[in-house]
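Re: that backbone. Tokens:
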């Protein structure tokens, strides 16, 4: 399978504990992506237990296909959310059981960093989308989450195959898509970015990651979704999470 089943251990799902800021970050991304759903045929890749799908379906898609590699997650989503023109199915992100050019909107939140063949994944998104179809992709920004590391370095988060800088993510997306706008979550001050990169150089990459994680503990006291909204990113390199809205190039 293209995505490890271990992804289920770090995603938002019923009954699982996650830090409050992680839940708010996910919910803010769901809210953001949901504004594109109305009247479109939608693919939700790595839909999990359907937490995001519950938000998307409130926006009245024309049709909805949810896919995940975890059969238990798919079964749960099917039981709770399946209805007319809404399906959930187990499938690899590299080979979705959909016709060419069949979807208007492809949502892939916190997915690409889990996939070994990221180029193959982007090609599959391109195959499934209609010309001009919208692709919403979100992923951690390595410049913040793993400062001082390279694309080929193993991320601190052991669930991830790799993490991207904005320029690296742009390079892989632009092969098939026109990037319309960058968005981000958790904007950092330039001074903080310099600080964590300085820590990485002096004390090592692990120290920089741990320092960044330690700073997040403040969110135990006053975290809410408004602290983690998805906003336009004129400087994507300063945001902890990258969200890109792009369109499939015309044939």
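Recovered sequence:
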């Amino acid at each position: 399978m293209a995505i490890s089943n271990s992804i289920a251990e770090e995603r938002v799902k019923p009954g699982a504990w996650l830090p409050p800021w992680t839940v708010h970050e996910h919910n803010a991304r769901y809210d953001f992506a949901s504004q594109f759903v109305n009247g479109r045929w939608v693919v939700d890749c790595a839909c999990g237990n359907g937490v995001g799908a519950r938000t998307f379906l409130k926006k009245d898609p024309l049709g909805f296909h949810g896919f995940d590699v975890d059969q238990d997650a798919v079964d749960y989503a099917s039981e709770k959310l399946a209805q007319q023109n809404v399906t959930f199915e187990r499938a690899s992100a590299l080979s979705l059981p959909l016709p060419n050019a069949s979807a208007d909107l492809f949502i892939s939140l916190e997915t690409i960093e889990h996939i070994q063949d990221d180029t193959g994944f982007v090609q599959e998104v391109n195959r499934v989308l209609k010309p001009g179809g919208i692709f919403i992709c979100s992923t951690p920004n390595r410049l913040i989450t793993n400062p001082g590391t390279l694309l080929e370095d193993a991320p601190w988060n052991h669930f991830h195959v790799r993490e991207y800088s904005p320029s690296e993510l742009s390079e892989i997306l632009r092969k098939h898509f026109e990037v319309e706008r960058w968005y981000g979550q958790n904007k950092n001050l330039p001074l903080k970015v310099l600080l964590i990169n300085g820590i990485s150089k002096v004390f090592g990459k692990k120290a920089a990651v741990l320092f960044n994680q330690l700073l997040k503990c403040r969110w135990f006291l006053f975290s809410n979704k408004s602290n983690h909204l998805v906003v336009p990113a004129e400087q994507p390199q300063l945001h902890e999470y990258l969200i890109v809205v792009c369109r499939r190039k015309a044939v």
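The first helix runs from residue 20 to 34. The CA atoms of residues 145 and 213 lie 9 Å apart.
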